Amino acid sequence: MTLVRCVDASRTFGQGDQAVVAVHGCTCGVEPGARIAITGSSGSGKSTLLHLMAGLEAPTGGVVEWPELSDRAVERSRDIAVVFQGPSLLPALTVEENVALAAVLTGTGESEADRRAAAAMETVGVAALAGQLADTLSGGQAQRVAIARAITLRPRLVLADEPTGQLDAETGEHVLEVLLAAVHETGAALVVTTHDPVVAGRLGEHWRMDDGRLVVPAREGVL
Hints:
single chain, alpha/beta, Rossmann fold, 6-stranded mixed beta sheet, 3-stranded antiparallel beta sheet, 7 helices, 9 strands, 24% strand
């Protein structure tokens, strides 16, 4: 029942003397319903590991597998959603158009994409912003919209990369509540990278990246 599994997966950027190993031989897995926080300092490899899990980066060593998901990247993209740390909305589109985009890009018809977008916006409490242009939103509003977009297709796995990292404490807490409520409502597993011990404390499993090496408590690791 493992959604994503890394087996001795590594990721190196560059070649020769310029090579940088971002992730060293990582072995871990995420099961349905998991709530995992990955902590570690800046540059420790947290984001790269998340990108490997999402299929956004290909491992340069080892393998990343999705046993319970499709082998085809296009189909798998319906089951895995990513929430990024920085701005990820298209500024010239409205909130509703941004949220519906996830469904449109995976081949969903326009009317069904609009229906799914409306449901997702209602779930995260941004329905009132539907007609507003993305570039007029506050940071907290933009992250809530990004969460709505992430859950539009009711994914089985949500990967959030420092989702509160650029927000003040109060706004970040609200965004975290929205994210936790959204994955609870959809039944998705959740993996969050974070510097914030408060955020990590809200999640049941704690993993740590240390200079590109993943430390997973033995009782929590899924191989």
